[in-house]
Amino acid sequence: MTAQQDQDSHGTRRWVVSRRAALGLLGTGAGAPLLVAVPGTVRAQPRLDRVSFVTNWRAQAEHGGYYQAQAANLYRDARLEVELRSGGPQVNPAQLLLGGRIDMSMGNGLVALNFVRENIPFLCVAAIFQKDMSVLIAHPNTGFDRFEALRGRTILLGAEMRATAWPFLRAKYGLSDDQVRPYTFNLQPFLADRMLVQQGYLGSEPFSIRQHGIDPAVLLLHDAGYENYGTTINIGARTLADRREVIGRFVDATMQGWDQYLKGPAGGFDTAAANRLIKQQNPEMTDDVIAFGTRMMNEAGIVRSGDAATLGIGAMTEARWGGFHAEMAKVGVLPAGLDWRRAFDLSLVNKGIGRA
Question: Is 262's pLDDT higher than 90?
Fold first, then answer.
């Protein structure tokens, strides 16, 4: 399997799965209980089951729940030793997952549906983001207050978005491929032309644009009806079958981490240690960017909205999966006859953890 990735200005990546794939996913094992000598006693330490997870890019606020679960010992409390690996320019999470070098990887709903299309036994077990954070951005006071306003505007899009969300937008709003120009993840063309529209990521480009004294108009693709799950936990079917109980503990602790991270100090949770881990993993990440990303997730209901409001963080439903597949099939992104139910497993989510 190969994957093409698009990078935003702070390195957020999405994955487009091709038609070439290979299988090989093996779970990692756990060691025997350790005996620790303490003066006057010999006590067995609880066994920690080892699991590994790789994110889709360098550490950032949009990965904060995982780092909170690590920093606040939520994984340890769940008897887990979790290896959190950051993505990056030299890291291909999809290949790590397929090659059995990682237990789980971050993805999105479309990636899981592409697994099914390629007949690869991998699937999604949780969806942290109920709303994809992909956005379209324009200069203020240029009439960009709804998606219908895209007609006639030049739009800068990366290859991944052009192959996924763009066909949906084009069909729904009567747009044309002639409007599209390549997005190179460089803000200069946008800054120089007030009438350009460009893609972005809610916690990234809008922050960078504000540093140039521009308060941009931003539309979330989810609000157009593009209901792709984001920041999913993807895993091999064999690993899930062999280690379901262990993976369930990882999912639960991760949802608790997200609950704490998004509530933050105002909700009684110290997230400073998690943010230190993020900055250690990604020295380019600043406190201001982390704060902005966290605020955007909360204000836009990225994690706590829709089904998650009642079913808890990480929620997924068959109806949502089926509806998204239908929309993508309608515009030719996915085959109409795809067995889309194979893309997910609902057994580890919808437990009410962190619900609003």
Answer: yes
